[in-house]
Fold this protein.
Amino acid sequence: MVDILFTYDTPVPLSYGDAYLEAARKLESQGITHACLNLAEFVNSYDFSDEYLQETADKLKPKLIISHHRSLEKSLANYTPPFLISTLMEEIETFFVRRFLGRINTDTPYDSINRLESKEGFVKVMRAHGLPHPKSILRDEISPEQWDYDYLSQELGQQDKSFLLKNVRLQVGRGISYVNSPDKMLYDEDVKVAQTFLENCLSTPLSLRVTTFHKHIIGAFLIYNTIDKYRSNCGGNNIVTLKTNHSCPSFMIPPNFYDEIEHFGVNPDLTLQEGIVELVDRVTSIPSQSLNRGIDIIFDKNSTPCIIEAQPCPGNPCCESYPLMAGIQPELGSSRFNFNIAAEVLSKYMYNFLQTH
């Protein structure tokens, strides 16, 4: 028996896959055990069934499964020809997602179309749980003829008949397009979500990100952009660290933002408002294939919060976010220092999870 089972054995350096493996090593001194899936044996015994994976799960009885898509791909490359890697990755990741939902942390794209992690699945989950989110239309919900500017602007548009389109394959704001005329309409097959564009009281793109692991808040940020018109987390974005149980707040806030900060789910002392904490709790209670989430919230002109994403593996473990959440000054240009802090933070929350499961 082991506490943590990794689906990979050769992580991509300084990635989340590497950070979780390093976190598990840090937990060895606290009696936490971990193992890596024996990929060589899996490949050699693969017979187009889940028999080997089921036997391994039954034997090891892991409390927590960690998978990292790119690290699994890198690991399988050590044992099998390139043309088989994708097939075997899907076999492994879908097996564990389906059997360990709520006890797995993975960024796999497999088996996620209707889950919280995908842009389409997110909309469906928000609807099913009655959680606030911008009005959205999924491309597969309407006829091909309705996927045009006139129909979508009528259903989703504000006074200027503008709305947003989302490419489900892209991240970090790159897949979001602002549409306010027929000539800007997109028909690319990966553009599958149309959504109402909500403008806040400052008319400046701003979002609140709350980073969680399981049901615990790790930290929170206000992310704003004075350059872009509709994306807070792309290009010239700025970050304000908020006060949580572990992090120290950053007071580098433009005066006009500080005067309006209570309209964005934040108290004057830079703590999260109770309503935001309750909203985050509702999201973290939804069984998911990702225990580590970045829950992004935007606000309309009436300061009503709307959840726009609950992404797996939020931020980069080599950047400043985890040190800031831990109340430690990040070292600019030192990926290794920031990575070590990220692994330390993740080890704490992995330990908390294992004590309750």
Summary: The mean pLDDT is 91. Residues 335-355 form the longest helix (21 residues). The radius of gyration is 21 Å. DSSP finds eleven helices and 13 strands in the chain.
